[in-house]
Amino acid sequence: MPLVHYSSTSGQGLFYTYPFNFSDLNESEILQGVNVQLKYENECIYFQYGPHKAVPLLPYGVSSWDKKNQTLKYFNVIYQVGDTISAGGTLTSKDNPNGYILKGLKTTPSDKCNLDKILVLFGLPDGRALHDK
Fold this sequence. Notes:
disordered N terminus
């Protein structure tokens, strides 16, 4: 059975998403590489980053969740719960977003999720070229 990933829609989601265009990849600052483990707990998606459990902030339109199979699709790469995702990113928080504006987001996670920490991923996952989109 094929995995089905539906595009995120604006509003309530399982993670934060920010507006994104592929041309943004050419104009963005380079973020240090991070390795995060995908977690799914109590209908909330988290990234485990060292000792930190954080809600993802991902680019809108290239990030989706398949609830039935519990997989995340990020830039056409499908990750299962427990998999490691390597990409440019940074850890921040809702109270101190380190310059990341948390207004104008396309989707936001449920308040029932632990929203203390946020892990921003930006850019292609390691090993992916822009033409793979």
